[in-house]
Structure formats: C-alpha cells, structure tokens
Amino acid sequence: MAQIKWPPVIARAAEIVESYSIPVTLRQTFYKLLMEGLIPNSDYAYKKLSAETADRRRAGEFPPLFDRGRGVLQPTSWESPKEGVQALATQYRVDRTAGQPVALWLGVEKNALAGLIQAWFDEISVPVLPLGGYSSESLDRQVKARVEAEGRPAVLVLSGDFDASGMDISRSFVEMTSCWEKVHRIGLDEELIDRYGLPVLRGKTTDSRAAGFIAAHPEIHARHGFGADEKGRPYPVQVELDAVDPDELRRLYQRVIDRYWDAAAFRAALASEKRHRTVLRRLAEDL
C-alpha cells in the first residue's frame, strides 16, 4: 500500500463513527477503514489511527468513541437524604426480566465489545457476560449458581472471533458451565464471513489449537491459504468479531432475543417499576 495520507483517512473515520446511532469502538472503526482499502492491517496503522483520533478528540474535532476500560472511580455521595432518595427514584429498577419464559444471557468473547452490548440492550436488563478469554472456575460456578437460582430455562447468545482460540473459548465455556437449555453462537462463522466480506487474516501457528482448527474448517483455509512458518506449521486463518458492522452485530443479537422475549411481561415489569418510582418520589418530597 502507498504511503497513507492521514487527513482524508481521519475525515473518513469521523464520517464512519457519525453514521451510527449506536456507540462504536476504535477497533470497529479501524476495520471499516481496512475493508474500504484506506489503511493496511498492521499494528502501525492501528496505533497511528488511535493517536490521530485521540489528538482530534481532545481538540473537539472528532466524535466520541466507545471506551469501556477507562474512567474515574469514586463512590457516589449526596448532600442530604432528600437528594439521595431523589437519585434513587431516578435510578430505581425492578428486575425487567421478571415473568420472561427463559433467562437470556448475552455472551461475548471480547471485553471491549461487552460494554457496547450492554449499552445496546440496557433497556431490557439482561445480563451481559464478557469472557475475555478462557473463563475461570469461579466465573463458571457463579454463572451456574445464578442460572439454578432463577429456576427457569437459560438461553445463551454468544459471539466471538473466528480463530483457533476464539472458537475453543466458546466451546470451553459452554462445556464447563453446562447449564444452558439452548446456546446460539451468532458469530463468527464461515457463512457470515463470506456474507459480509470480512477480512481474513493470518493467525498464529504457535496456538496449540491451530491444527485442530484448520482440520475442522478446511474450506476457508483452502481459499485463504497463508502457507507455513519456518517449522512447516500451516498458518490458521483469523477473523475478528470487531470487523462485523456494529449495526449488524446488534441485529444478530436482537434476532435471537426476539425469539424468546415476552413483550407483555416486559410491559408489566415497566409498569411495576413506574409505580415504585412514584412511591420513592413521594418519600423524597416528605423529607
């Protein structure tokens, strides 16, 4: 690729971010630019995009990007009991999943995308489960205990990278928790990769799961062969979930949610919540 002219690239990046009504990450923006042929898939290009957009955001010249990992941590406080109860009346929620026939869980392999999914589906208050790699025994136990305590069938809607580790992370978590009535892995898979024309990258031969992954997915490896390393080990392919258009990723989750979601039960929960908030506001008025 010829030398990158960053001003038009950054201008296009801003257009991409502003074209969505939902928050997007830097990584998702990077993949949109990559798919448009404006930047190469390299660490340098990603870091340069990060630096350039950060400088412009500080100058107020670039729209905000979603960043789940940073923020100011401080306990909330109020100047009076009245203010505290008023704040509670604003923030108060009932369990908005009450009365639903199944317990829906939204899982994602990547921590960075978990915040987006939580923001997208905050209104319905279903739990979002960021795996962030292979889960731990404590997380597995926590999830199983919560599913058992709810006493209704649990359905997991899960997404992750299409690579040797990403596919195995999903398999491992489902196997270790073993508490799901149904599991929907909405992506990534070969059909979605072809449908969206996602960039297929070279993975790592050092991944201990690479050989099994190649054997399980021979067609995509035949089409996108990256050869072998100096030890003769074939390179596996890698496709990141971040490359999926954010609106489309949201729709993939929404389609499965709609199959199970009871709208009448949700309306009843919201009505109960409204009544409770009224009680809290009256309490605040009496203080």
Strand order of the largest sheet: 2-1-3-4
Task: Look up the CATH topology of the largest domain.
Answer: Rossmann fold
Helix and strand string, N-terminal first? HHHHEHEHEHEHEHHEHH
**CATH-defined superfamily of the largest domain:** Response regulator
Distance between the termini: 67 Å
Structure description:
- The protein has 287 residues and is α/β, with parallel strands linked by helices.
- It has 3 domains: 6-58; 95-194 and 250-287, Rossmann fold, CATH 3.40.50; 200-238, no CATH class.
- The protein has helices at residues 6-18, 26-35, 43-58, 81-91, 111-120, 137-150, 164-177, 190-196, 210-216, 218-223, 246-260, 263-285; strands at residues 103-108, 128-130, 154-159, 182-187, 201-202, 237-238.
- Strands 2-1-3-4 form a 4-stranded parallel sheet, with helices on one face. Strands 5-6 form a two-stranded antiparallel ribbon.
- Helix 7 (164-177) links the parallel strand 3 (154-159) and strand 4.
